[in-house]
Amino acid sequence: MEVLKNVDLVKKANIYFDGNVTSRSFINNDGSKMSLGIMMPGEYNFGTNEAELMEILDGTVEVKLAGSDTWNTYTADTSFNVDANSSFDIKVKTITDYCCSYIK
User: N or C: which end of the chain has fewer CB within 10 A?
Assistant: First the structure.
């Protein structure tokens, strides 16, 4: 189990899609921003401002990045990148635990 130490946690939760996707944001000691969250089964579309690295910690999702017609499956211990100022569609197949790193 990876442990994140010396972080500044934002108390207010990020709540999307009527509570089906939630996360907590925090800032690492190096100044980088991340969030940890849970997605309930369903289909969602997310837009990005910054580039993102999405790590699937547990669960199963199918992802289609903007401009692509291909759905890719991600499970525990896999990840995908999303460009800045872009979007992605995600089909959450099982309750999914994730970590999102925002890349500048």
Answer: N
Residue pair 68/89 in contact by the 8 Å Cβ criterion: no
- The string of pLDDT tens digits covering residues 79-97 is 999 999 999 999 999 999 9
Domains within the chain, CATH numbers bracketed: 8-103 (2.60.120.10)
C-alpha span between 9 and 12 (Å, rounded): 9
Geometric angle at alpha carbon 31, from 27 and 35, rounded to 5°: 30
* Secondary structure (3-state) at 71: coil
Taking only Cα atoms into account, the Rg of the chain, rounded to an integer number of angstroms, comes to 13
